[in-house]
Amino acid sequence: MNAPANTQALDPQMIPPVASTTARTRPLYWSVRRELWENRSIYLAPLIAAAVMLFGFWTRAFHLPARMRAAEAMDSVTQTNLLATPYAFSAALIMFAGLLVGWFYCLDALHGERRDRSILFWKSLPVSDLTTVLAKFSIPLVVIPAVCFATIVVMQFIMRVLSSIILATNGLSAAPVWTHVPLAEMTLVLLYGVATMAVWYAPIYAWLLLVSAWARRNTFLWAIFLPLAICLVEWIVFHTGHFSKMLGERFNSFRPAFDIVPDDGSGVIIPLSQLTPGRFLSTPGLWIGFAFAAAFLAAAIQLRRFRQPI
Amino acid sequence: MSCIEARGLRKTYGSTVALDSINLQVEEGRILGLIGPNGAGKSTALNAILGLIPYEGELKVLGRNPWTARDLLMRDVCFIADVAVLPRWLRVSQALDYVAGVHPRFDRRKAEHFLTRTDIKTKHKVRELSKGMVTQLHLALVMAIDAKLLVLDEPTLGLDILYRKQFYDSLLNDYFDRRRTIVVTTHQVEEIQQVLTDLMFINHGRIMLNCSMEEFESRYAEVMVTPEHVAAARALRPIHERQVFGRSILLFDRVDHQQLAALGEVHTPSIADLFVAVMGQPAPAPQGAAQIPVPGAAR
């Protein structure tokens, strides 16, 4: 039975009939699409945050000409900060919105499907647990950062155009908006920041996915209190705080990825020269984090095999 | 190759034995009804067959180990677990897109054709559909998949009689082609008596009865015994006796139908009546008297 099938496969002309009966499938792609259908907050939250920021920027933009006139006497750094602060602030806020969406998404990703029993439908289709969990992991790791990056770039561009129009209509030069806040450099730094943050937080996302696959209820409490309990036990038993120190460092993705000297007067714009990709990639913490993420994901995949509706 | 083959299939949850080393063989092209009270082990058996739970013993579904090769197996196996598993946020169009995107044997046009016969529109979300319509949608998706084995676990639970009738009608007319195999569990046994080719009773994790419908009809006879023949009838050792309107109805296993005809009116019993008789018996020896060789082997 197998032998003729094998000889057929060797003959390229015999392949089309086989292909016509079984359509090509893309389980990973459709699994990601499915997550976007279910969790529209993945793209709505950054968009809404951007809309709110733009509205705030627009209402304050009318004071811009007066402040620019006042700043003309001052030095270039102050001028830059005046112009750039709204960009940096709004970008940080959208990244934070994306972070929150990612965390809550992960906590529900493997729990919600058990709660509403739909896991039985998903498991009735030829999509492996590996594909499913990886698709879900790609949401906070790739999709949300990409959405945030695109949203921020578009939002900042609209801000620039808006500032330019307002300055120009008030008889001021719009040039500082484009020269003091360099577009290309800012976009590159933003891309770097979004990417490093995503991979730095990978173990956190994987941990949240694991909790959502494991806990029967109260995923949020388990996700928070289990690490806290470890900190507490370590402190009581060993009188040390290595675990809490490790957690603290994990929540500060800037330290290894950027070379920022506090209060050096360079202001809110991070220049390309302050990016330290080499140091970031050689930080043991990054690779230890990946190892943890891989272990958590493997555990989540195994757990999903056994999981039934709750 | 048998569609499903189990030897010594066993599953325990703590100290509870859900499946007690059952042997089972389902040939291709059969429609097997798995009947049993709640907690009898039906769903456990189906979950093992579908690769949703680990188990002890040997189990092959379409020649594959369902626990280790679930995602491969699901290309050839479909299941409807019960009426409420389609996620409520899913749009009908998205359901079609998704299944078409992940299932190599899904025929989208076929599914759309089935849907045109219902009131379901592709823009509807599952949460906007009635329970019966959700089942129709799920059935449309499943029937458009060219699978070898279809497993239905209480597919018509909570549906009204019209939808239930329609469900089995479309299954038989539009789907079943004597090559596919269907395994179904349900409590509404009367409705599937005409549908099944094989019957299996399961209780306390054991198979209490396992026969084809032909054997069922030739083996079991229900006799409405006239009062003067009751003593003679009881001497033939009926497996069950009940009283209806003052008449005794006795159920016999492997007693010559000619002989029975002398005692009163002879019928084929309903599955429900046989179920009561078999389940009401004092616990038989495991895999005991009530069991005869595997279904399908008779052919």
What would you note in describing this structure?
The complex is a heterodimer of chains A (310) and B (299). With 310 residues, chain A is an all-alpha fold. Chain A has one domain. In chain A, 76% of the residues lie in helices and 0% in strands. Chain A is built from 17 helices and no strands. The longest helix of chain A is centred in the middle third of the chain and has 41 residues. Chain B is 31% helix and 27% strand. Chain B is globular, with a radius of gyration of 21 Å. Chain B has two domains: 207 residues, 3-Layer(aba) Sandwich (Rossmann fold); 66 residues. In chain B, a hairpin with a 2-residue loop joins β1 and β2. The interface between A and B is medium-sized, with 32 and 35 residues.
Biggest sheet layout of chain B: 6 strands, mixed
Helix content of chain B: 25-40%
- The run of helices and strands of chain A is HHHHHHHHHHHHHHHHH
Count up the domains of chain A: 1
What name goes with the CATH superfamily of the largest domain in chain B?
A: P-loop containing nucleotide triphosphate hydrolases
- Low-confidence segments of chain A, given as residue ranges, are 1-20
Tell me the total number of β-strands of chain A: 0
Helix count, DSSP H or I runs of 4 or more residues of chain A? 17
Question: Brief overview, please?
Answer:
Chain A has 310 residues and is an all-alpha fold.
Which helices and strands occur, and which strands form pairs?
The complex is a heterodimer of chains A (310) and B (299).
Chain A: H1 2-10, H2 15-21, H3 27-38, H4 41-61, H5 64-71, H6 76-109, H7 112-115, H8 119-122, H9 129-169, H10 175-179, H11 183-200, H12 202-214, H13 219-238, H14 242-250, H15 254-257, H16 277-281, H17 284-306
Helix pairs in contact in A: 3-9, 4-6, 4-9, 6-9, 6-12, 9-11, 9-12, 9-17, 12-13, 12-17
Chain B: E1 4-13, E2 16-26, E3 31-35, H1 42-49, E4 56-61, H2 70-73, E5 77-80, H3 92-102, H4 108-116, H5 131-143, E6 149-153, H6 161-175, E7 181-185, H7 189-192, E8 198-203, E9 206-212, H8 213-219, E10 220-225, H9 230-235, E11 240-244, E12 247-253, H10 257-261, E13 264-267, H11 271-280
Parallel strand pairs in B: 3-7, 3-8, 5-6, 6-7
Antiparallel strand pairs in B: 1-2, 1-4, 8-9, 10-12, 10-13, 11-12
Helix pairs in contact in B: 4-5, 5-6
